Automatic annotation (TrEMBL):
SUPFAM superfamilies: vWA-like. Coiled coil: none annotated. It comes from Bradyrhizobium canariense. InterPro entries: UPF0229, vWFA_dom_sf. Belongs to the UPF0229 family. This is UPF0229 protein SAMN05444158_6308.
Length: 426
């Protein structure tokens, strides 16, 4: 006889984590699509706080085997008030996507609240950091087990046989413990001896040696040594993110806002991959300076535009504070594309000879005014310079944006997983 047990108990509050994870795995494609659609309409701060998304109910259907034909009775789980013959009201009224009057049923929607980590994980799920092969372990922030010499006490499983035997041998040599070969040689001489006086001497000597051997054991408890372990700082990977931006008069607040959103998203992305991430802000006009974040985005500045000054400042900071052997270096530059014509050669040389060889990734984001079509007319001087360098083989990533909604697609395009041939082309 087959027994079927149906558990109809309701899930207690905050006790459905396993069901929640199972749901996210099953409806991952739908939830991820809703996350990316929602992220285009949010500020960066809202994106990092998670929130509520909606997915269509028809995407939650599970495949099942069903019997065709015949008469059968079913008991639906959760039924507390309906009996056979009752008419069930239609669910989902007033929600979802309605159809035209008289043309079929409405489309119900399922609203789902995501935590901050779930939201960011889903958004960054199909992204990857470029060139993660070089990862230097330096910054110690966690602990691990490490060998720390020997101890006189410990677990039998940690006995060091080699160290114990060597110490026992040293003790026997120091105390001049009789060797078994010496005693055996004297016994052989005694067996062949015919002189009673000599036999008495050999007998006494053999007895003394055997007594001394018994007093000095082959292995003594003081010889035993145990391998000792202790918790030691365990290094983790670290990265530094350089933010370079033109703050001359041609850069409007809208352009700076676009750059800020890209920088923030890149920082969040790096924090998902590295335990320790530092940020360096370098702003420039015709001269560059390292500043704090508030000054970087809001501090007034005036002057011309020399991109080489920012690249030189970044090179000096890397050389003095961030050794490439110890740090994974990432850089993102934002500009409206203006640069002095005479500065092009200097900037190109600094970028190709000093910056790119030590960088894991370098992205150039050219920003424009909202609704501007200037990108379609002609390329800027800086864009033309970087495009020429990339054609010559420089590993540069370049994109243009003029509207807030383009930031996420551009970021996704820069970091989406792709094959080796695509990586070489980008």
């Amino acid at each position: 006889m087959v027994i079927h047990i149906v558990d109809r108990r309701l899930n207690p509050g905050s006790k459905s984590l396993e069901n929640r994870q199972r749901f996210l795995r099953r409806a991952k494609a739908l939830v991820q699509g809703a996350v990316k659609k929602s992220s285009q309409e949010r500020d960066i701060k809202d994106v990092l706080e998670g929130g509520e998304v909606s997915i269509p109910l028809d995407g939650m259907n599970e495949p099942r085997f069903r019997r065709e034909g015949g008469t059968r009775d079913m008991v639906l789980p959760g039924n507390k008030k309906f009996i056979e013959g009752d008419i069930l009201p239609r669910s989902g009224e007033g929600s979802g996507k309605a159809s035209e009057p008289g043309e079929g049923d409405g489309e119900d929607a399922f609203r789902f609240v995501l935590s901050r980590d779930e939201f960011v994980d889903l958004f960054l799920d199909d992204l990857e950091l470029p060139d993660l092969a070089k990862r230097k372990l330096a910054q110690a922030e966690s602990e691990g087990i490490q060998r720390a010499g020997y101890a006189t006490t410990g677990s039998p499983a940690n006995i060091s046989v080699s160290r114990t035997v060597s110490r026992a041998m040293a003790r026997r040599v120091a105390l001049r413990r009789p060797r078994p070969e010496a005693i055996a040689q004297l016994e052989a001489e005694l067996a062949e001896c015919d002189d009673e006086t000599r036999c008495a001497e050999l007998t006494a000597e053999i007895a003394a040696l055997k007594a001394k051997a018994r007093r000095i054991p082959f292995i003594d408890p003081i010889d035993i040594r145990y391998r000792r372990f202790e918790t030691m700082p365990k290094p983790v990977a670290q990265a530094v993110m350089f933010c370079l931006m033109d703050v001359s008069g041609s850069m409007t607040e809208h352009m700076k806002d676009l750059a800020k959103r890209f920088y923030m998203l890149l920082y969040v992305f790096l924090k998902r991959r590295y335990r320790h991430v530092e940020i360096v802000f370098i702003r420039h006009t015709d001269r560059a300076e390292e500043v704090d974040e508030d000054t970087f985005f809001h501090g007034p500045a005036s002057g011309g535009t020399l991109v080489s000054s920012a690249l030189q400042a970044m090179h000096d900071i890397v050389r003095s504070r961030f050794r490439p052997a110890d740090w994974n270096i990432y850089a993102a530059q934002a500009s409206d594309g203006d640069n002095s014509f005479s500065d092009g050669e200097v900037a190109g040389r600094l970028l190709t000879e000093m910056i790119l060889p030590v960088s894991q990734f370098f992205a150039y984001l050219e920003v424009g005014e909202a609704g501007s079509n200037s990108f379609d007319l002609s390329d800027s001087s800086l864009w033309s310079l970087y495009e020429r360098l990339r054609t010559d083989g420089a590993p540069l990533s370049m994109r243009k944006v003029s509207d807030r909604s383009e930031i996420f697609p551009v970021f996704h395009d820069l970091f989406h997983r792709r094959g080796k041939h695509e990586r070489a082309a980008s």
